[in-house]
């Protein structure tokens, strides 16, 4: 579960950095795309922590511990927007893989349902990124 939380946090932070650093001809479309990528991620992280950890005897990981791992997960920045979007696509793909790994967790239906919803959301975001790169 921690890996999925880390990946979602990395996606959010990296996308927001692209969002704030956008410039040039593609400024507006990049700015809006990154908002779309970030949509719902914080709520999903909160729900994961609540559904998984509140129903479990383990304490949720501390934010500082999560952020240390996130720091190592976020790719180096590039001045090339296309490269940054490609890097973001790779992060989203890794998060999709993490949802599959969590799917092996034999927990409650609530956890599984939430992870399924997150996987669908990530696949849509990945599709948006791939469509943008194909343009």
Describe this structure in words.
- This protein has helices spanning 2-21, 27-38, 41-54, 63-73, 81-102, 109-134.
- By secondary structure, it is mainly alpha-helical.
- The termini are far apart.
- The mean pLDDT is 91.
Describe the structure concisely for a colleague.
With 135 residues, this protein is mostly helical. It has helices at 2-21, 27-38, 41-54, 63-73, 81-102, 109-134.
Secondary-structure blueprint:
Elements: H1 2-21, H2 27-38, H3 41-54, H4 63-73, H5 81-102, H6 109-134
**Name of the top-level CATH class:** Mainly Alpha
Q: Total number of β-strand segments? A: 0
Helix run count: 6
Distance between the termini: 35 Å
Elements, N to C (H/E):
HHHHHH
Mean pLDDT: 91
Strand content: under 5%
CATH topology: Ferritin
Low-confidence stretches: none
Helix % is: over 70%
